Amino acid sequence: MHAAFRSIGAYVPTKILTNADFEAMVDTTDEWIFKRTGIKERHIAADDETTSDMGVKAAELAIERSGLSKNDIDMIVCATISPDYFCMPSTATIIATKLGLEKVTAFDLSAACTGFVYALSVARAFIESGMKKNVLIVGSEKLSAITDYTDRGTCILFGDGAGAAVISATTDKSEAIIDIHTGSDGAYADLLMSPNGGSGSIHDDPTGSACVMKMKGNETFKVAVRTLTNDVVAILEENNITSSAIQHFVPHQANYRIIKAVGDALNLKDEQVVITVEKYGNTSGASIPMAINDIYESGRLQKGELMLLDAFGGGLTWGSALVPFAGKNI
Ligand code: UT7
To answer: I want to staple 62 with a disulfide (CB 3.0 to 4.6 A). Which of 90, 164, 191, 196 is the partner?
Structure first.
């Protein structure tokens, strides 16, 4: 049995924070933000809108586009670092209930910005082993809930949103996910972390706010470029695939300069590289499925086309995947 990437959906909240809005909040400029990150705006969830609410909207779209009924879904994996509730219950179980699914296997996965690629690898493993047939993977983030809006080094980066995909069993090898890499190095944990709010709390934040993100941006940037470049080169070589065979390079949308550096290392043409960071900012585990949804809804992603996904985030974690799109054309 193989695992096929059957459908995609996404949800973006309506409220927009522009770079000009940040000029009024912290010591920054539109020019600095755009030049250093490629970001112009990001979407922010409503106060009463949760990570599960956004995940459900993305999931409903993905399920509808898969041609399956909700009851065909036998597992939900939610990749998030901004769950409805820290500790428990998982956001995946809340999504299951809101979708009207009972008794489904549901759990969250914590791999920060690499969460969607990790979730894809879990779905694939459950399907290939025969344990599950149709796995819903959701990347949903309300990062505005864990962002320190007084820290100009991080607050300008992050946005909210959700993406979801249905991964299904297939006997057709041409539809099969080709390969997935996942990796981590906890020695770099302090580069990007939420130091408060857990059993290892550092309590160095005088505001006492739990779970806000802290990042050593420049060091993270350098490790990201090096790690991602090595990883995407390796996954292509190991599978005897040249970069010209990739129709869509869909990287985690953290910073345009990181995406450009990795794309250049692979000699990719602009039309092969999917960029959404300008309009959504960094939405962590949601950024890759939101980007896939963008190319799907614009008609750029067609059945049978090959995607190369790559992601990098807190942990540190990283991953890449070679994924043919096995869904219906829009
Ligand atoms: O998604 C998970 C993985 N995340 C990433 O991969 C993010 C990686 N890092 C980055 O994207 C970039 O490092 C940032 C966008 C966060 C920062 O860009 P940078 O080019 O690495 O800037 P920097 O941290 O080296 O800071 C350069 C200067 C500093 O001032 P001084 O010390 O040179 O006087 C900062 O204080 O820019 C200053 N600065 C700002 N200036 C205006 C930092 N943030 C801002 C700001 N506006 N928002």
So the answer is: 164
Question: Which of 172, 196, 231 is the endpoint of a domain?
Answer: 172
Q: What share of the chain is helix, strand, coil (3-state, %, to 5)?
A: 40, 25, 35
Please indicate whether residue 205 or residue 123 has the higher confidence score (pLDDT): 123
Give the pLDDT of residue 73. 98
CA-closest candidate to residue 221, choices 308, 149, 313:
313
Q: Please indicate whether residue 28, judged by its CB atom, sits closer than 6 Å to ligand 1.
A: yes
Q: Kindly tell me the burial class for residue 66, based on how many C-beta atoms sit within 10 Å of its own C-beta (0-12, 13-18, 19 or more).
A: buried
CA 31 to chain CA centroid, Å, is 26
Q: Is 232 in the same domain as 89?
A: no
Q: For the chain, what is the mean pLDDT?
A: 96
Q: Is the CB of 254 under 6 A from ligand 1?
A: yes
Average pLDDT over residues 135-156: 97
Domain check: are 150 and 205 in the same one?
Answer: no
| CA distance linking residue 242 with residue 35, whole number of Å | 31
39: CATH: 3.40.47.10
The helix (H) or strand (E) run that includes residue 6 is strand 2-11
162 plus 20 within the same structural domain: yes
Any idea what DSSP says for residue 330? -
Query: pLDDT by residue (tens digit) across 214-255?
Result: 999 999 999 999 999 999 999 999 999 999 999 999 999 999
pTM, two decimal places: 0.97
Strand order of the β-sheet with 179-184 is 179-184, 317-324, 306-313, 248-251
The residue segments making up the domain with residue 284 are 179-324
Residue 66 phi, psi dihedral angles, 5° rounding: -75, -15
Catalytic: 240? no
**Average pLDDT, integer, range 275-302:** 98
Which of 111, 143, 172 is where one domain is finished? 172
Q: What is the pLDDT of residue 176?
A: 98
Beta-ladder partners of 250? 309
Given 113, 134, 181, 255, which residue is catalytic? 113
pLDDT band of residue 83 (cuts 50, 70, 90) is very high
